[in-house]
Amino acid sequence: MEVLSLMDLGGGVGIFGTLLIGGIAGWIAEKLTNSSHGLLMNIIIGIVGAYVGGFLANVIGLKIALIFQGWFWGNLLVSVVGAVAMITVYRLLKGQRVR
Prior knowledge:
Layout: H1 14-32, H2 39-59, H3 64-67, H4 72-94
């Protein structure tokens, strides 16, 4: 797997776009998993979730850039999926009930 193809989600979004998508994705993941993290943690979870989601999408061969026009919706979807996966795995490892 090429390093450049790992996050083939439609191009760079810049620092503002990264923070915006990270915050929204973290907030959505927080609501989907009935968690409570706060703004900063939502942004961090969303940004890291983007990498996790991008990796998972590439593993299964899903090309988000071909499905969505532009960068926002594809990046947001992948970030939310990755963030929910991270929260779920964290809860399983910690021994908390997955809601």
